[in-house]
Amino acid sequence: xxxxxxxxxxxxxxxxxxxxxxxxxxxxxxxxxxxxxxxxxxxxxxxxxxxxxxxxxxxxxxxxxxxxxxxxxxxxxxxxxxxxxxxxxxxxxxxxxxxxxxxxxxxxxxxxxxxxxxxxxxxxxxxxxxxxxxxxxxxxxxxxxxxxxxxxxxxxxxxxxxxxxxxxxxxxxxxxxxxxxxxxxxxxxxxxxxxxxxxxxxxxxxxxxxxxxxxxxxxxxxxxxxxxxxxxxxxxxxxxxxxxxxxxxxxxxxxxxxxxxxxxxxxxxxxxxxxxxxxxxxxxxxxxxxxxxxxxxxxxxxxxxxxxxxxxxxxxxxxxxxxxxxxxxxxxxxxxxxxxxxxxxxxxxxxxxxxxxxxxxxxxxxxxxxxxxxxxxxxxxxxxxxxxxxxxxxxxxxxxxxxxxxxxxxxxxxxxxxxxxxxxxxxxxxxxxxxxxxxxxxxxxxxxxxxxxxxxxxxxxxxxxxxxxxxxxxxxx
Length: 477
Prior knowledge:
Elements: H1 2-13, H2 15-33, H3 50-53, H4 56-99, H5 104-118, H6 136-150, H7 154-171, H8 177-205, H9 213-216, H10 229-240, H11 243-258, H12 269-292, H13 304-309, E1 414-417, E2 420-423, H14 446-455
Helix pairs in contact: 4-5, 5-6, 5-7, 6-7, 6-8, 6-12, 7-8, 7-12, 8-11, 8-12
């Protein structure tokens, strides 16, 4: 029975078979009509009404035939959809079984086929790119995103990354509802990969009494998240100073104190750190690729008052994501939730970040040239060494931001709306430690420096620069 079913399914899925059947039925109908008129004679009395003369029986028969034909075609179409849906479910289950195989070649092949399944429309549904019309897409996105940060085989992970790229290209079409689904899954995978790396970093830090730049510098070769060593070191320093890493290091140190025979540092720890960093970088690349595919959201107002009231639908939730060194050139990130995100060394050239939430974001060494940050929340953001050349900061909140060495040449900080001015807020931002020189021409933006001195004067006694927080594991019991 199963063999007969498998042979019958392909014939039902061939569209021209149904056209042939319909053509045969039409030819039979034309042949009957061309036989000539059918005369029905029956005796009636003169003077009787027309409705009594009308051949109601023949009309009812004709209508019944049309209804029967329509019912037959509808039932056949429903059966075809049922068979097609069963075939797709069976195919998807088979691909998932291959994806969990112990053989790398099987997993790589399954990743390729999963990308194809993501573009499969549910039979009988319209072609609009929605979750309802493409029910396999969310499941494929979650499977590929999870495998990207868990797969240890480099070759298989490369195929998964390529499959995610093709999936993102497909999701870029239409209203991009499926692209937001993919971004959400990749953001979760990115955060999971970040936790794995932090756990291994805490293991490494627990073997040192004091975590300094010299302790973290050897890891820049095993975890090269950014192009420059300085940005990578800043990234590792922020991760080591995070609450999650400190807590994990304390737990690790307490465990070593209880078991004196436990080795403080496993021999293959650096290899594990390198592998975890590679998986984390793969999630960064896949997430950045999907974010660059976002088109300009519909209904984005051009005026500042309307922009403050505008809400992005659906939301772009990227809080706590690790995007160090990511390529986000011209990304459409209006009103994105990027609080606490790590963007050290990221390329955000001419990125659209209006009303974005970048509270406590790590942006050391980031390229923000020409970025549109009107109304963005940059309070307590780490902008040391960031390039804000000609960025637009009207109405942005930079209270408590760290701007040591940041390039602020020709930054737009205010605009006039009606009779009021919309200004950036630099309260407590230590703007005097920034660089107002054009890197190319070496010209100095004295106007901006005078404007900041007028509206946010520096204190009489400059505050001491903040020292990097250092921590030590608890002493052995």
